[in-house]
Structure formats: structure tokens, C-alpha cells
């Protein structure tokens, strides 16, 4: 049973505490997982472009390998990540990187596309666990005013990881027939570093209160967040969230119950509409540029990734200046406009192609900051890891499908069909968001009531 609310009320709560170095360090350590994710997906972009023909990487296998990590991410975030709502955030926060490190190193020894697919699938499972656990953990430790910028920074760190991998791969691409293996295995370096940095992380006080472990929660808040901060707000609201020992299947059932399904489906769909074209396009960007008539696709790929990284920085500044809903809807329409020229022009010039895709990358990076902010704010503590994990899992279904079919569609129907599909999905994302997106900005995590069951 939870202990009684203390007679003396502390000056601060987690939501109202001043920013400290701990908050920023935790954001950095959490962001390290997103750097690894971006690096892992980005490094494949260059590796696929330099794999020797005798390895057997047909368009079918290219799509399969390109989407493997995304399928794995679905498994990890939907079925393993929600364990954090039962066993705590801390354990999985480090354990997922151990699995990732082993699979990253094993990529060097693969002998066939099917073996590479298996290793990429395992990498994806580890990433998926981190998608469910890391943003949930960070959101529960941050004060209200830092939650938007620092959770949004996770998406920017993802982009920096993606860009870093393209740069590393670009300079390693001429190392010989086995260069692609060395390129892929470089992801083990940042993984080992982040794994060491995460050792010793404290448990989430919000989760501890859900278990009735109030004294432990209060001690962590005072040690890591502020000596004058306490958990009286958590104790006062803990009764609103029952069933903290739910299994993964029970949590999933509740997420899709009448009470929560609108938020679950919205969180998953907006992420699908953002991530599907972005992941598919960026994975096969060199081939896409070549199909659009630009020789030497790696150069334009590097340029677009720079715009991608810069856009994320801009998004970090905008996220507390614009409401969540307005930011989501407007960026969908702007991305659709940026792709429109590549749909209507039968033979666009190189300048038009690069400009349109760079604008798309810039806007998508701004919008992508919401992927780790919005879902964390839509669900209560007892469902947060499950809700974030489910949204991430749903997004990866779309991203995996798009990444698998893009090389096949590109080879069979041409680049314009790819652009038409991208445009349609972005317009649909804008329309759905206009109708269903709730506003969550400037609310404490404990303030969010259960939505009406309509």
C-alpha cells in the first residue's frame, strides 16, 4: 500500500522543479539511444550502395534487409518495451543496449543477405525496446517546461546519428570489397559508449510510487532532482491509475479499449504518416537521386542529411512556441507541398529535385520532434511505456512496409509513383491530425485526464 501523503509539503515537484545538470545529462544519455538508432539505419544507406554484386543483394533482398530493423523495432516496442510498466524503466534502459552491441558486432560475420536480415532484425528489436522505454523514462524525470525541448531533442539526436553514419560511410566506402561490413560494424562504437554512460541510472519515481515504494521515490527525487522537491503530487494522484501490474497483453487490451483507443490510434497514425516516407526515402536516398537523374547519389544524400539535421535544431526551438496540434498539422501540409513539384513535373531539373527534397527533409525534421513528445503526453504513468511502445510499433509497421516496397516500386514503376504515394500519405496525415489531434502542451504528466469514451 502507498504511504500516506507527508504532513510537510515540499517546495517543488518533478513537474515544477528548476532545471539541473542531471536533467540535461539524462537527456544526453537517453538521446544516445536515439543516436544509435539513427546511426544504425543511416549506415545501411551507404552500405547498400557499396555491397559487391556477388553478395546477392537483389532488389527484393535490399528491401528485406532495409526493412529488417524496422520489423524488429515493431517487435521490441510492442511486445518487450511495455515490460517497463511492470518491472520498471531502469532495467530495460541498459539491457537493450547489450543486445544491440552483440548484433552490431555480428554483422561483420554475415555471409548472405538472409543472415544480414537476421542481424538487422535483432538490432531492430533492441531499438524497439529503447523506443518504448527511453522517452517514457526521460519524460517522467523532466520538469514541465523542459519536457518539450528535451524530448524533442531525441529526434534531433536521431538525425545527428543518421548524418554521422552517412559521413562515416562516405569516407569508408572505398576501403575495398569488404568496406560495407566495416561500415555496418561501426555502430558498435557509440553503442558501447552509451551503454557505459547509462549504468547507475536511478529508477523512475513515478513508477516507484505506482508500486507503493514512496520512500524510494522521494529519496531519488531529493537526490537527483532537487533537495526541496517531493512526491506529494504523485501520491495525491496515484489512485487515478490502477492496475500497475498489468501484463503486456492486458495493457494492449486497455490501449485499444473504448476509453483509450482514439489516442492510441492517433499516436500511431501520425507517427506512421511521418516515418513511412521519411524512413523509406532516406534508406534508399542514393538510388532515389540516381533515379531522379542525379549522377553520384551519395553527394546529394549528404546535402539532404545536413538539411535534415539543421531542421531538427529549429524544431527544438519551435516546440514550446507553437502548440503541439498546430505544429503537427502545419508541418504535414508543408511537407506535402515540398513533394508536390516532384509529382507534377515529369522531368524535374537537378536543382528542383535537390531543393524539394532538402525542403522536405528540413520540415520533416521539425515535425519529427513531436514523435517522442506527443505520445509521452497522451498516456498516464501506468500505460505510458505501453502507449509509447505501441505508437512506435505502429509507426514501424508503416516504415518497414514503405522501406520494403520502395526499391521494388522504384524498379517496376519509377520514381514518380514513389512521390505520388508519399504525397498521398502526407495529405492523409494532415487531414487526420486536423480532426483528431488533442492539445497536450503545458500540462503536467499527472494532469492529463482519461479521455471521454466516445
Q: How is this structure best summarized?
A:
This protein is mainly α and 454 residues long. The protein has one domain (21-436): Growth Hormone, Chain: A (Up-down Bundle), CATH 1.20.1250.
Task: Describe the protein's architecture and organization.
With 454 residues, this protein is mostly helical. It has one domain (21-436): Up-down Bundle (Growth Hormone, Chain: A). 73% of the residues lie in helices and 0% in strands. It has 20 helices and no strands. The two termini are 33 Å apart. Its main location: membrane. GO terms for molecular function: carbohydrate:proton symporter activity. This is Putative major facilitator superfamily transporter.
Write the layout of secondary structure elements.
Layout: H1 21-50, H2 59-80, H3 84-87, H4 89-106, H5 113-141, H6 144-172, H7 179-185, H8 188-198, H9 205-210, H10 214-225, H11 232-237, H12 248-255, H13 261-283, H14 285-291, H15 298-318, H16 324-344, H17 350-368, H18 374-378, H19 384-413, H20 415-436
Helix fraction by DSSP (H/I, runs of at least 4): over 70%
Note the overall shape.
Answer: globular
The CATH level-2 architecture is identified as: Up-down Bundle
Structural class: mainly alpha
Say what oligomer this is: single chain
What's the total helix number? 20
In whole angstroms, the N-to-C terminal distance is 33 Å
Total number of domains: 1
Return the average pLDDT rounded to an integer. 82
Sketch the major β-sheet: none
Radius of gyration: 22 Å
Q: What share of the residues does DSSP label as strand, in percent?
A: under 5%
What would CATH call the class?
Answer: Mainly Alpha
Order of helices and strands: HHHHHHHHHHHHHHHHHHHH
Q: Look at the structure and name the CATH superfamily.
A: MFS general substrate transporter like domains
Total strands: the figure is 0
Amino acid at each position: 500500500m502507498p504511504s500516506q501523503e507527508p504532513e510537510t509539503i515540499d517546495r517543488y515537484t518533478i513537474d515544477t522543479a528548476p532545471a539541473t545538470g542531471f536533467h540535461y545529462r539524462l537527456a544526453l544519455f537517453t538521446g544516445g539511444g536515439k543516436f544509435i538508432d539513427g546511426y544504425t539505419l543511416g549506415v545501411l544507406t551507404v552500405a547498400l550502395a557499396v555491397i559487391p554484386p556477388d553478395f546477392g543483394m537483389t532488389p527484393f533482398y535490399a528491401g528485406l534487409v532495409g526493412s529488417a530493423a524496422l520489423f524488429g523495432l515493431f517487435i521490441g516496442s510492442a511486445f518487450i518495451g511495455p515490460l517497463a510498466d511492470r518491472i520498471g524503466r531502469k532495467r530495460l534502459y541498459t539491457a537493450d543496449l547489450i543486445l544491440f552491441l552483440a548484433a552490431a558486432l555480428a554483422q561483420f560475420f554475415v555471409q548472405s543477405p538472409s543472415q544480414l536480415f537476421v542481424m538487422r532484425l535483432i538490432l531492430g528489436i533492441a531499438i524497439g525496446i529503447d523506443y518504448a522505454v527511453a522517452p517514457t523514462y526521460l519524460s517522467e524525470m523532466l520538469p514541465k517546461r523542459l519536457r518539450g525541448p528535451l524530448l524533442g531533442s531525441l529526434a534531433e539526436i536521431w538525425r545527428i546519428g543518421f548524418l554521422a553514419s552517412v559521413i562515416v560511410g562516405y569516407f569508408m566506402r572505398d576501403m575495398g570489397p569488404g568496406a560495407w561490413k566495416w561500415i555496418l560494424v561501426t555502430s558498435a562504437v557509440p553503442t558501447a559508449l552509451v551503454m557505459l554512460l547509462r549504468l547507475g541510472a536511478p529508477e523512475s519515481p513515478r513508477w516507484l510510487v505506482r508500486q507503493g515504494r514512496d520512500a524510494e521515490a522521494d529519496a531519488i527525487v531529493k537526490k537527483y532532482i532537487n533537495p526541496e522537491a517531493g512526491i506529494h503530487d504523485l501520491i495525491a494522484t496515484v489512485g487515478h491509475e490502477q492496475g500497475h501490474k498489468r501484463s503486456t497483453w492486458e495493457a494492449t487490451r486497455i490501449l485499444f479499449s473504448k476509453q483509450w483507443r482514439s489516442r492510441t490510434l492517433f499516436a500511431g497514425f501520425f507517427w506512421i504518416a511521418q516515418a513511412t516516407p521519411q524512413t523509406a526515402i532516406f534508406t534508399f536516398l542514393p538510388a532515389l537521386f540516381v533515379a531522379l537523374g542525379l549522377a553520384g547519389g551519395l553527394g546529394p544524400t549528404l546535402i539532404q542529411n545536413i538539411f535534415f539535421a539543421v531542421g531538427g535544431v529549429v524544431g527544438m526551438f519551435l516546440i514550446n512556441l507553437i502548440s503541439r496540434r498546430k505544429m503537427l498539422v502545419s508541418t504535414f501540409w508543408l511537407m506535402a507541398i515540398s513533394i508536390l513539384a516532384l509529382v507534377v513535373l515529369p522531368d524535374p531539373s537537378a536543382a528542383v529535385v535537390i531543393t524539394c527534397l532538402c525542403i522536405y527533409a528540413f520540415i520533416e525534421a521539425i515535425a519529427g520532434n513531436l514523435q517522442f513528445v506527443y505520445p509521452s503526453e497522451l498516456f498516464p504513468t501506468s500505460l505510458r511505456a505501453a502507449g509509447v511502445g505501441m505508437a512506435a510499433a505502429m509507426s514501424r509497421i508503416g516504415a518497414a512496409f514503405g522501406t520494403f516496397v520502395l526499391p521494388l516500386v522504384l524498379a517496376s514503376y519509377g520514381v514518380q509513383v514513389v512521390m505520388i504515394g508519399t504525397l498521398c500519405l502526407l495529405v492523409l496525415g494532415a487531414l487526420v491530425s486536423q480532426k483528431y489531434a488533442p492539445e497536450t502542451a503545458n500540462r503536467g504528466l499527472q494532469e492529463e485526464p482519461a479521455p471521454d469514451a466516445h
